[in-house]
Amino acid sequence: MPRRRPSVIVADPPWDVMAGPLRADVGEGWQFRPGTGASRPLPYQTMTLEQMAAVPVPDVAAPDCALYLWTINAYIEDAYELAREWGFKPSTLCVWAKNPMGGGLGGSFGITTEFFLYARKGSPVERRTTGTWFNWKRHYINGKPAHSAKPDPFYDLVESRHDGPFVEFFARRARLGWEYWGDESLQTLEVA
User: Which of 23, 60, 78, 189 sees the fewest Cβ atoms within 10 Å?
Assistant: First the structure.
């Protein structure tokens, strides 16, 4: 349990992402890259919608709380459902418009967007932001875009809109002044 119940939650769930048909012989957490005959592991384990809904976000959230829930094109409807499962009312779908790099993943369209759903529980204190799309630079590690890493300006946006306390579920790295929980973080947050 956090020291104080957070009034702001950021969540970047490990959606079951595939760039092609799932191959049963590859195992959980892997994806198949069409046309290459090769598969590669994701850098984290994925979860089903039911597993994500079971994460104790409702037990941690303050009565008046904002939720920023990251999703991708294939899971927009599921993101709305997950927000409701956690006790939040969806408000605004925002877009991270990335500059194209190569063809991008996807089928008919090379996908260069990610989304975050802003949702509320109760009446969180918030400051208004103009616009619902953002063209932030990708986060890089060793000269390559970091898989699923969210840009620092996103966190700056969240902090400019709210006073906190802040917590990030499914965190990949620490951020000063935040509590966090996730397989790829040091997990300052203890949840049952």
Answer: 23
Residues 153, 155, 158, 163, CA torsion sign:
negative
pLDDT tens digit string along 150-182? Answer: 889 999 999 999 999 999 999 888 888 999 887
Contacts for 159 with CB less than 8 Å, ≥ 6 apart: 166, 177
Was domain 8-181 assigned CATH 3.30.420.40? no
The pTM of this model reads 0.81
* Calpha distance 145→85 (Å, rounded): 32
Contacts of 173 (CB under 8 A, 6+ apart): 184, 185
Residue at 172: amino acid letter: R
Beta-carbon contacts of 122 under 8 Å, excluding residues fewer than 6 positions away, are: 62, 63, 64, 65
